[in-house]
Design goal:
7-stranded mixed sheet; 3-stranded antiparallel sheet
């Protein structure tokens, strides 16, 4: 139990930076417009190494979850058959949704609200086993319990539904295990591996009894895994911890009022520190930011 608490405490320490980052991306018109131009929002759903549009348009009433979406709106929200486009039933889901929706309101941005949900308990938020596609991009390795996130995601799917994973390799190593970066994702001989300094998991072994899995590497180095559900996830593998509601509440702005004053003060100080830094960083032109990232080895 102490290890579990430690994991969640580490994860929560990353909230201030994440909220400050997105607040300032959405503050400046040039960064907001750059994000929207980069994203696939208001266009056909497109994913690397997987034809999501083809898969979904042959299903009746497909439902899609973009889990751990941040505020990037990276996933397109339309289906097309080559003749006409129609809106996709897509849900943008993130545990920091209350913070993100405050940012949308503060900066008057006309994009969909983010829905609150935690991948570690995803099938509690979407319990009907009727989801066709769960998308997790650059977010599984930012979660508190990535293996639990995989199991819960598969549990939300209907038979034949797909969990799509797309991640940068070994990002925790690159980021020196700061903030949300507590896990690495890599592949070895077609096996999807999640690891950190303490543990390592083979995802292929974990899901083999109830899902088929393929793993590939894109030209840009991104690791893509397609996990197709073929049977129900054993109940013994699914977590139903009683502290789910408490943890969820602790992650919301309202939940901060339940912290001890020292914890609350630490969060506010961290937020304003990062918010001040991001205010100036995001104000820079895109080309200047890319040069700085290359200079420090993050691009």
């Amino acid at each position: 139990m102490s290890n579990s608490v430690s994991i969640w405490d580490k994860w929560r320490q990353g909230i201030a930076y994440e909220v400050a980052f997105w607040n300032n991306v959405y503050r400046w018109n040039h960064t907001f417009e750059g994000t929207m131009n980069w994203s696939a929002y208001n266009s056909t759903i497109t994913l690397e190494h997987f034809d999501a549009n083809h898969f979904l348009r042959h299903l009746q009433h497909p439902k899609v979850l973009d889990v751990g979406c941040g505020m990037s709106y990276a996933t397109g929200n339309f289906l097309t058959d080559g003749k006409e486009a129609k809106p996709l039933d897509i849900h943008y889901v993130d545990p920091l949704a209350p913070y993100f929706n405050q940012i949308l309101k503060r900066h008057h941005r006309d994009v969909p609200q983010i829905e609150f949900g935690m991948m570690e308990y995803l099938s509690d938020f979407f319990p009907h086993h009727d989801v066709s596609l769960v998308i997790i991009q650059n977010a599984l390795d930012h979660s508190a319990h990535p293996m639990q996130g995989i199991l819960e995601s598969v549990n939300t799917l209907h038979p034949g539904g797909i969990l799509y994973l797309n991640h940068h390799p070994n990002e925790a190593e690159m980021e020196h295990y700061k903030g949300f970066h507590q896990y690495n994702i890599t592949q070895a001989d077609g096996q999807l591996i999640i690891w950190n300094k303490e543990q390592s998991w083979n995802v292929n072994d974990l899901v083999k009894d109830f899902a088929d899995i393929s793993v590939s590497v894109c030209d840009n180095g991104h690791i893509v895994s397609i996990i197709r559900k073929k049977g129900e996830v054993p109940a013994t593998l699914l977590s139903r911890q009683k502290d789910k509601d408490l943890r969820a509440m602790a992650l919301t702005p309202q939940g901060l009022s339940n912290l001890q004053w020292s914890e609350f003060l630490a969060y506010r100080l961290s937020y304003w520190k990062y918010n001040t830094i991001q205010f100036f960083v995001q104000a820079l032109p895109w080309t200047v930011k890319m040069k700085l990232k290359k200079l420090i080895g993050q691009a």
